[in-house]
Amino acid sequence: MLLNEAQTLEDDGRFYEALALIDRVLGMDADDRLVAAALTNKARVLAELDRTDQSLAACDEVIERFADQPDLVAYARYHRAASAFEHGRTAEALADVDQILRNDPRDEDDLIIADALLLKALVLRGEDGLALYDEVAERYLDDDAITATALAWKAELLGDLKRWDQGLTVARNVIARFDGATDSDVRLRVASAHVWVAGYLARKRQWAGAIEAYGRLLDGFDATESDEMATLVGWAREQRSALRVLHALRGPRVGAGVGVAALLIFTVFRRTGRRRDRERRRSVAVRLR
């Protein structure tokens, strides 16, 4: 099937070739489901190429053309919501997400609902976001990739809320629960949990523990696993080296300065290092289908 070939090309980063195949599908006399899928895939590929306006136009076409068939427009709504979120238009993002959730089939095999709930959690943040992460983790208990994602992002949000001890507990739970996983998505979440453990320990000025946490990430994960993993591994290596220097300098006269420096290091990460995973990720459902 041409769309499957296009998906393979997209996964390999060959976006222009993928677009060519998708356009071939759209030029055929295809049924509604195939056309909707092709347009949605086209929107996603265009987004990968940073052609945002064209991507959103493809989403709009799906939503307008198949407005009476909610199951055909769900992914288009999701991608439009994700784009709105990334550009700070939270009201638009919530409107599309809530429209998807209104048609929730309560089917745990329908992964678009997991995506929508996770995106809504990112938009709402705070206590509402934490509650949604718990809902996803409970509802998709048998899906390790979704559960690990929900819990890892919950650990991150707890850090955003400066609830370091709770964030440590959740991050450590992710590590313990999914230790030894072979699925690439689950491994990425476990690696990120190691980062949160290290960062939150640094926040608590537990430098030796933070250094050990980075070391466990470096011992258990390899940069060749994926681009995202390479980012985490590279970051962990740099921060472990920096913390070792700061830890060696620690003393009664420089302790406060060491603390400030370490907090600045972690703050820089939270503003930059996590963004590839958070804002440029593809939906869980699309990756796992």
Task: Outline the fold blueprint.
Layout: H1 2-11, H2 15-26, H3 32-48, H4 52-65, H5 70-86, H6 90-102, H7 111-124, H8 126-139, H9 144-160, H10 164-178, H11 184-203, H12 207-220, H13 227-249, H14 255-272, H15 275-279, H16 284-288
Helix pairs in contact: 1-2, 2-3, 3-4, 3-5, 4-5, 5-6, 5-7, 6-7, 7-8, 8-9, 9-10, 9-11, 10-11, 11-12, 11-13, 12-13, 13-14
Task: Write up what this structure looks like.
With 289 residues, the chain is mostly helical. The protein has a domain of 139 residues. Helix content is 79%, strand content 0%. It is globular and about 70 Å long. The two termini are 15 Å apart.
Strand content: under 5%
Count of individual helical segments: 16
Q: Give the CA-based shape.
A: globular
State the total count of DSSP E strands: 0
Q: What's the rounded overall pLDDT mean?
A: 85
Summarize the biggest pleated sheet.
none
Residues in helices, as a percent range: over 70%
| Structural class estimated from helices and strands | mainly alpha
Distance between the termini: 15 Å
What string, H for helix and E for strand, traces the elements in order?
HHHHHHHHHHHHHHHH
Low-confidence segments, ≥5 residues, pLDDT <50? 252-289
Q: From the alpha-carbon coordinates, what is the Rg to the nearest angstrom?
A: 21 Å
